[in-house]
Specification:
Helix content is about 35%, strand content about 20%. It has a six-stranded mixed beta sheet with strand order 1-2-4-3-5-6, covered by helices on one side. A five-stranded mixed beta sheet has the order 7-15-14-12-13. The relative contact order is 0.13. It folds into three domains: about 160 residues, no CATH class; about 55 residues, ATP-grasp fold, A domain (Dna Ligase, domain 1, 2-Layer Sandwich), CATH 3.30.1490.20; about 130 residues, D-amino Acid Aminotransferase, Chain A, domain 1 (2-Layer Sandwich). It is α/β, with parallel strands linked by helices. Helix 2 packs antiparallel against helix 3 and helix 3 runs antiparallel to helix 4. The chain has 14 helices and 15 strands. Strand 12 and strand 13 form a beta hairpin.
Length: about 400
């Protein structure tokens, strides 16, 4: 089933182009025109799917991806160096948020990546491309629960090491993450509840509270309710069967700005990936002004430069997060409170981290993310153990 391998650059060049300010619609048009060529193969169809997804054409992107998968389920990504490791990534069929984009972090490294789209069919190692380590890229989401349960069963006796088990990924639900991380010294993981729509309407909610539809990501449907009068309008705008609610914690710094850090926890050690400042409590790197504001970039640079010393008192906290979640690779969004505790917003293995930012505007990130990439390579090699035959 998985014997056909198509060469394809994957998501990385599209993300790099977007960060560089390229005209993504023109890029998508070029990708679509390539499909008219007689030699267009599965790789071209998948490339066009990524291009369309990057400009928000989700429905068309899915149709293109389905055509790509009709031709091939395996995609070999280019490797910039002599490979030291062959990594097999298992992917779910879906949009850009459906899978962990680990290839973006590993871009330029000595890892040869093959990506395979899987479904509920039985998995047979003999039908898979040769690999030294397997990584389940399938993101935690309600729609992926059955697939992750299937992978949990299928990979029990896999003949190659598996980095992070499906059982641990199944537990990356916001409610369960908060439960698992209670009682860790130096950490505040606000208790999160899952409520039906009717329960949200009927209960007397403790406010202010953060609310979002179950399974939503990237801030979609995320809001802060400070008074009950706001609830009817929110529910009218965001119709869903279930919602997650958590208490809102004011994490402003003394200067009045909100600072959110994204950290990669790799074998229990924390590595900084970004540090974003905003006047609004909902901080997203792309709209926090980091690209436009040199002072904010200077603050991020200072955070990264001082990170080793800053993180030393928190090392046991970060190690315990990884241990409780049973994940060798997990990303967290968090803040530091004025009392020194770490406030956890989210833990996931599918957040986007990369070293693709413009070197002129973010020279410090090239250095720092290079360190993260090398730490991740060391992690992969460590978990592959003696199973890899490349040197």
């Amino acid at each position: 089933m998985y014997e056909t391998i198509a060469s394809n650059a994957g998501l990385t060049p599209h993300l790099a182009a977007s960060l560089a300010g390229e005209d993504m619609r023109q890029r998508a048009d070029q990708a679509l025109r390539r499909l008219e060529d007689a030699g267009a193969d599965a790789g071209h169809w998948r490339d066009a799917a990524f291009a369309l997804a990057c400009i928000g054409q989700a429905e068309m992107a899915m149709r293109l991806l389905q055509e790509a998968l009709r031709q091939a389920r395996c995609y070999a990504l280019p490797c910039a160096q002599t490979p030291r490791l062959r990594l097999l990534m298992l992917l779910a069929v879906g949009d850009l948020a459906a899978n962990a984009p680990l290839e973006c972090l590993l871009a330029g490294s000595a890892v040869a990546i093959t990506q395979v789209y899987v479904d509920l069919s039985p998995l047979h190692a003999a039908e898979m491309p040769e690999h030294d380590l397997l990584f389940i890229a399938v993101a935690h989401a309600p729609a992926h629960r059955e697939l992750l349960q299937h992978l949990q069963q299928q990979l029990v006796a896999w003949p190659r090491p598996v980095l992070d088990q499906a059982e641990a990924l199944l537990a990356l639900d916001r409610v369960e993450v908060a439960q698992r991380l209670q009682g860790i010294a130096g950490l505040w993981a606000p208790v999160t509840r899952l409520l039906t729509r009717q329960q949200v309407i009927e209960e007397a909610l403790a406010l202010p509270a953060i609310i979002r539809p179950e399974g939503s990501q990237a801030g979609l449907g995320l809001d802060c309710l400070s008074e009950a009068a706001q609830l009817p309008a929110y529910l009218e705008q965001h119709v869903a069967p279930n919602y997650t609610l958590a208490p809102f914690v004011d994490y402003r710094r003394p200067d009045g700005l909100y600072a959110k850090m994204r950290l990669a926890l790799i074998d229990g050690r924390a590595w900084p990936c970004h540090y974003a400042l905003s006047a609004h409590w909902m901080v997203h790197y792309v709209n926090a002004g980091m690209y436009e504001d040199a002072d904010k970039r200077a603050a991020e640079e200072a955070f990264m430069a001082d990170f080793e010393a800053w993180s030393r008192p928190h090392a046991a906290t970060f190690a315990m997060i990884s241990e409780r979640l049973q994940l060798a690779y997990v990303l967290i969004d968090a803040a530091e409170l004025t009392d020194g505790r770490i406030l956890l917003f989210e833990a996931d293995h599918a957040m986007v981290v990369h070293a693709l930012d413009d070197a002129q505007r973010f020279p410090y990130k090239q250095v720092q993310m290079g360190r993260v990439r090398e730490a991740m390579l060391a992690c992969l090699l460590r978990h592959a153990g003696g199973g890899h035959g490349l040197s």
